[in-house]
């Protein structure tokens, strides 16, 4: 049994976008802050009540709100953030979709929105409009009115399917 | 946003977890963290230690026999995908995808938020909660497990091990959730399970959530339907009778009066959906 006291720190390992990182954190440190402090500042904080999804990352294959996890709890996890999506400077089809369909304005919700779309399309490669809207219901956007985000995800879905089919 | 300081415990096995929890009064188990961490961030609670449960094997997995034994750490996502009558449908409308990827059934019922979704199907199906501690295991009917809002039958050092739900073979079921927006807690939630033979109701269970301190069965609605055919007229009568089991409070989700009316509407919808 490992016991870390309130005034102590604990060392953790995270695999982020395919690279290994070590960090030393207080138990109370939130994963979102740990990720941002390690340089992944595409992960955003938009609320303090777990509603907005701006902090969404993929952890061990599932989308999670990194503001509602402790960094210590994520010890050993494999994490994908927006920074890990492009390959050799080439945009991921979801990133391309947001560009082509004007699915962003201020861009603050965009990293979280794209990571949730990534999870959605992995679970359901051919989502209907309704399934897309339900799939991103944990991600708030105050600029776009969502319409073009739905279009962007449809675009990505078609592009990703035409590649793999 | 920033939790207060607390210690953190990573047990090797469930015995260590139970031992530590029992000997540290204000320590708390950490499951999905999606009620606990939001409360820490608002500093509503100040536990001395959090005890991590996620690796404990005794609390994992779903076993199916004549009933479903659902490990406490099973996530809303996993339950939504596992084809359990009534419960899977309910799990699929809890919160949003990210929350469902982390939140667990054990955490949800231990937290006992009066607005949470699971209590409606759990009371309707006569589910049982298996509680484990240093002294062994005990099985508690869900109705006795939920004592009051945010209050359960658990004492310090006890953990929910699993939730046992009958297979409900031959039943038709539905969960109707009224919400302001996708991802929100229920304004009103109604779970229905019904068994018909030759067009006549042989068994019916109606569970209500979000309109009392804890989930309730609408017994007189059930009696109205028993041994009868589900005509529109009878459904409407039974749905009206459910309102007497609702004692909601007025809040940002609506007035008490509105919520009571919605109990009728949602019960009626659920009954019409399960009708053959
Ligand atoms: C944005 C948001 C929206 C939500 N919407 C809904 C909704 O619509 N419907 C709904 O029902 N819920 C909703 N929830 C709550 C969510 O379902 C939580 O995940 C759930 O209530 C708690 O489960 P958890 O595994 O996250 O538990 P935790 O937060 O880890 O724990 C909750 C409590 O239970 C205790 N505990 C945990 N596991 C055990 C165990 N095995 N034995 C004993 N005690 C234990 C903890 O110590 C703590 O006191 C929402 C949450 C968020 C953040
Ligand atoms: S910052 Fe809003 S949900 Fe995480
Ligand atoms: S683009 Fe501004 S919040 Fe979504």
UniProtKB/TrEMBL annotation, chain A:
Keyword Metal-binding: yes
Keywords: 2Fe-2S, Iron, Iron-sulfur, Metal-binding, Oxidoreductase
TM stretches of this protein: none
InterPro entries for this protein: 2Fe-2S-bd, 2Fe-2S-bd_dom_sf, 2Fe-2S_ferredoxin-like_sf, 2Fe-2S_ferredoxin-type, Beta-grasp_dom_sf, Diverse_Oxidoreductases, Glyceraldehyde_DH_small
Pfam families, alphabetized: Fer2, Fer2_2
Gene Ontology terms for molecular function: 2 iron, 2 sulfur cluster binding; metal ion binding; oxidoreductase activity
The protein's name in its UniProt record: Glyceraldehyde dehydrogenase small chain
Source species: Sulfuracidifex tepidarius
UniProtKB/TrEMBL annotation, chain B:
Database matches in InterPro entries: CO_DH_flav_C, CO_DH_flav_C_dom_sf, Diverse_Substr_Oxidored, FAD-bd_PCMH, FAD-bd_PCMH-like_sf, FAD-bd_PCMH_sub1, FAD-bd_PCMH_sub2, Glyceraldehyde_DH_medium
Pfam families listed in its UniProt record: CO_deh_flav_C, FAD_binding_5
Family annotation (PROSITE patterns): FAD_PCMH (PS51387)
Keywords: FAD, Flavoprotein, Oxidoreductase
Domain FAD-binding PCMH-type, first and last residues per copy: 1-170
Domain of life: Archaea
Gene Ontology MF, one: FAD binding
Protein name from the UniProt record: Glyceraldehyde dehydrogenase medium chain
Organism annotation: Sulfuracidifex tepidarius
């Amino acid at each position: 049994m490992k016991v870390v006291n309130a005034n102590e720190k604990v060392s953790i390992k995270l695999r982020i976008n395919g690279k290994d990182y070590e960090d030393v954190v207080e138990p109370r440190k939130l994963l979102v802050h740990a990720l941002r402090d390690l340089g992944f500042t595409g992960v955003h904080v938009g609320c303090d009540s777990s509603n907005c999804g701006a902090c969404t990352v993929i952890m061990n294959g599932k989308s999670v709100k990194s503001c509602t996890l402790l960094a210590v709890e994520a010890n050993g996890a494999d994490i994908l953030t927006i920074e890990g999506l492009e390959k050799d400077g080439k945009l991921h089809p979801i990133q391309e979709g947001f560009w082509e369909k004007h699915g962003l304005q201020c861009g603050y919700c965009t990293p979280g929105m794209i990571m949730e779309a990534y999870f959605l399309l992995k679970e359901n490669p051919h989502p209907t409009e309704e399934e897309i809207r339900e799939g991103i219901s944990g991600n708030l956007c105050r600029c776009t009115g969502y319409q073009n985000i739905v279009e962007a995800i449809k675009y990505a879905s078609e592009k990703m399917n035409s590649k793999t089919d | 946003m920033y939790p207060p300081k607390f210690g953190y415990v990573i047990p090797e096995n469930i015995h260590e977890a139970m031992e530590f929890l029992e000997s540290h009064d204000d320590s708390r188990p950490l499951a999905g963290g999606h009620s606990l961490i939001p409360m820490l961030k608002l500093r509503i609670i100040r536990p001395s230690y959090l005890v991590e449960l996620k690796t404990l094997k005794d609390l994992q997995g779903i076993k199916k026999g004549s009933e479903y034994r659902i490990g406490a750490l099973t996530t809303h996502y996993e339950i939504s995908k596992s084809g359990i009558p009534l419960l899977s449908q309910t799990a699929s409308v809890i919160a949003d995808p990210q929350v469902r990827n982390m939140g667990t059934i054990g955490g949800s019922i231990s937290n006992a938020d009066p607005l949470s979704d699971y209590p409606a199907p759990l009371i309707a199906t006569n589910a049982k909660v298996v509680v484990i501690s240093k002294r062994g295991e005990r099985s508690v009917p869900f109705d006795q497990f939920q004592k009051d809002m945010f209050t359960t039958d658990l004492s310090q050092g006890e953990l929910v091990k699993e939730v046992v739900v009958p297979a409900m073979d031959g039943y038709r079921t539905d969960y109707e959730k009224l919400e302001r927006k996708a991802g929100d807690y229920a304004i009103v939630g109604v779970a229905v399970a019904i068994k018909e033979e030759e067009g006549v109701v042989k068994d019916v269970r109606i569970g209500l959530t979000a309109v009392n301190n804890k989930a309730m069965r609408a017994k007189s609605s059930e009696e109205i339907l028993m041994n009868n055919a589900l005509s529109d007229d009878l459904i409407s009568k039974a749905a009206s009778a459910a309102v007497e089991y609702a004692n909601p409070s007025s809040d940002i989700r609506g007035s008490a009066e509105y919520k009571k009316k919605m109990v009728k509407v949602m019960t009626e919808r659920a009954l019409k959906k399960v009708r053959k």
